[in-house]
Amino acid sequence: MPPPSSGGATLAATAKILEGYSLASLGWHSPEHVHLLAEAWKRAYADRNAFLGDPDFVAMPIQRMISAEYGAERRASIRMERATPSEQVGPGLSPLKADGNTTRFSVVDSKGNAVAVTTTINSLYGIHAVVPYAGFFLNNEMDDFAAKPGTANQFGLVQGEANAIAPGKRMLSAMTPTIVVDPKGKLFYVTGSPGGATIITNVFQSISNIVDFGMTITQAMNAPRLHHQHLPDRIDYERASLSAETIRALEAMGHKLRDTYNPKELYPYIGDVQAIMVLPNGTLQGASDPRRGGAAIGY
Ligand code: DON
Fold it and tell me: Which of 102, 118, 178, 201 is catalytic?
C-alpha cells in the first residue's frame, strides 16, 4: 500500500536488503535468520520513520528507498556476528528537494506534427495552493520582472526598465521551447529546457552540439554545459565540461569561471533538456536529460 501508509515502501525496502541472503539456508528462526530480520527492519524503519508521511505534504525518496542499489548499500553495514545498535543506524536516504518551477516536454506524432512546450511557475510551489475556480498554482513569477531595475533577481539576471513592473504587463521569461527545421523546412529537432536564466544557453548548446559537432541526441544532452548571462560576468561550467588546461587558457584571456556544482543549491546543474530528433531514415528518437529525471516515451 502506498503512502500515507508506509507499508508497501518499508516492505519492499526490507525485501531489497534481505535479497542478498539465502534465508532458507539459514533455517527458519535460527539466530542468524532472526538477526538478519532485525538488522534489515531496523534499517528500513529508520528511513520510514524519518522520511515517510502524507504525500500531500511531503515529497518522499521512495524510488531510492525501494531500489536494489540502495538495499545493497544498507546491507553492506550489516555484520553477521553482531547486532548494530539502533543509535548507530541512522536514516540512509536524503530528503527530496522541493521542486516546482518549470515543466518541459516535446511531442512529435506519426505525421510529423511537433509541439514544444515549456510552462513555468518560476522557482517553487510556494504554499502549494491552486487558485479556486481558476485552476493554476500560486507562483513567484513576479521575480521574472525587474522588480527593481538594475538589481539582480533570483537567477542573478540584472534587467532594466523594459522589464519593470507595470499594470497589465507580463514578466520577461527565458523559456525557449524550440522546433528546429532543416534547410528544406522539414522537422529535424524539438527541444527546450527549464533552468531560469540558463534556459536559453542550454537550449542553444543542445542544438549546436548536434548541428555543429555531429553529436547524437543523447550525447548532446548528456554533454556538460556552460552558461554566461552578461552579469555576473563569468562563465558558469558544469564540472566535467572543461579541463584544467582549458580553464587556465580562458582565465588567461580574461574570463572568470565558476564551477556550478554545489550540492546545497537547488539547481547544481545547468538545464534539463527534453528533446526529439528525426533521424535521416525518418525514425523519431526521443531522449531525456539525465540531470533531473524525465523519460522518453514512444507510442
Ligand atoms: O520564465 C522563466 O524564465 C522562469 N520563470 C523559468 C524558471 C525556471 O526555469 C526554474 N527552473 N528550473
Answer: 102
